[in-house]
Amino acid sequence: MITIGFSSHRAEIIPFARQIMEQHQIIVLEEPPHPNFADMLNGNLSIADYLMEIDIEFPEFDRLMCNEARRLHQKEKKLLQIEPYLERLLNIHEYFADGMTPEDVLNMADLKAVYLAEKSATGALINFYARSMEKDFKQVIKSVKAFATADARRSNLRSVLRAKEIATLDTTKKIYVESGYIHYPLYRYLLHNFKGNQNIRAVYLMQPVFRKLGCKRRNMGPGDILTLYYALNLTIKKDLANLLAARSLIYTQLIETQEMLPDHSNMTPHTSDEARVNRLMDRMGYEDCKTIYSEIRFKNRHDSLALVKS
Fold it and tell me: How far apart are CA 178 and CA 300, in angstroms?
């Protein structure tokens, strides 16, 4: 049996992840292999020293996950780092640092697709940043959709590569796969690779919290929803695509991006924050977003929230 645990990389998900990881014998982490991972698991390298060697966005989440990994390792669970896309992307950066050119990388069959996907997504993001400074809202929306399309292609390639490697594992053991919400296509690719010969289930770790908070659409922001439409090749009407793109512009201004830690007053601060912002977004139409965007795009989160709520 393979279980894909969909969640965000936040400290608050640890108790939910722990409960389900315990039930599996192989744990597949959503990160590229690191040469010192085994030493960290065995206690030969401190978690603090290990984390200094890797690129981390949410320090407390990564520290807690390393603690969980050690605990599971001591219980003789097998922990694997499988994220071929990011592994190849790191290789590309190392090749460039060694003086190789893009043309050299394009001649490497295993790296070409990753290079092109990353170049396309990065180019679309840069174009969005440039358009976001303009007053023509339609052009800004067009650039948001272009980035979502490129990001969807990149996300799909990540899922394809990851599913292919996961399919080589010992499926006589129960396997848990860590995955971000945006990589839901991984579920489809695993189903395809195993051709119905394996029980594969998707689990949303924070679903009990989503239900309690009355969240819609797995509590995903409008930008992620738009990207998933494209990643899953779902038909989407132009008006809905434009609305999701417009809402995503406001959402990114309002959401808390700094790591928030659970405490007794709120054990799921990020999920709660996302739910609050999504409820605000659900009330906003395209023209509302157009008006508000012009007013908040250069404001901080606090001022933007106050304006939207007024």
Answer: 33
**Nearest alpha carbon to residue 223 among 150, 287, 130, 119:** 150
Cα distance between residue 119 and residue 64, in whole Å: 33
One-letter identity of residue 96: F
pTM score of the predicted model? 0.94
Q: What are phi and psi of 180, to 5 degrees?
A: -75, 155
Query: Are 259 and 58 contacting, i.e. CB atoms less than 8 angstroms apart?
Result: yes
Residue 309 to residues 48, 117, 134, Cα–Cα distance (Å): 41, 38, 25
Reduced to 3 states (helix: H, G, I; strand: E, B; else coil), residue 66 is helix
pLDDT band, residue 198 (cuts 50/70/90)? confident
Q: How many CB atoms lie within 10 A of CB 37?
A: 21
What is the C-alpha to C-alpha distance for residues 236 and 15, in angstroms, rounded to an integer? 36
In the numeric block, the tokens 């389900």 are attached to 20
> Which amino acid is present at 257?
T
d(CA 206, CA 9): 12
DSSP secondary structure code for residue 263 in this structure: B
d(CA 38, CA 203): 28
**Could you tell me the CA-to-CA distances from 202 to 109, 148, 181, 211 in Å, in that order?**
32, 23, 11, 17
Q: What CA–CA distance (Å, rounded) separates 81 from 16? A: 20
* Alpha carbons 176 and 17: distance in angstroms, whole number: 10
Q: Which residue in the block uniquely carries the two structure tokens 């969909």?
A: 6
Looking at 37-184, list the stretches that DSSP marks H as alpha helix, in order from N- to C-terminal side: 37-42, 47-52, 59-74, 84-97, 102-106, 109-131, 137-166
Tell me the HSE value of 134 on the side-chain side, using a 13 A CA sphere. Answer: 13
Taking alpha carbons only, the member of 145, 141, 147 closest to residue 287 is 141
pLDDT tens, position by position, 270-304:
999 999 999 999 999 999 999 999 888 888 888 88
Which two three-digit tokens encode residue 80?
Answer: 């694997």
**Strand partners for 200:** 2
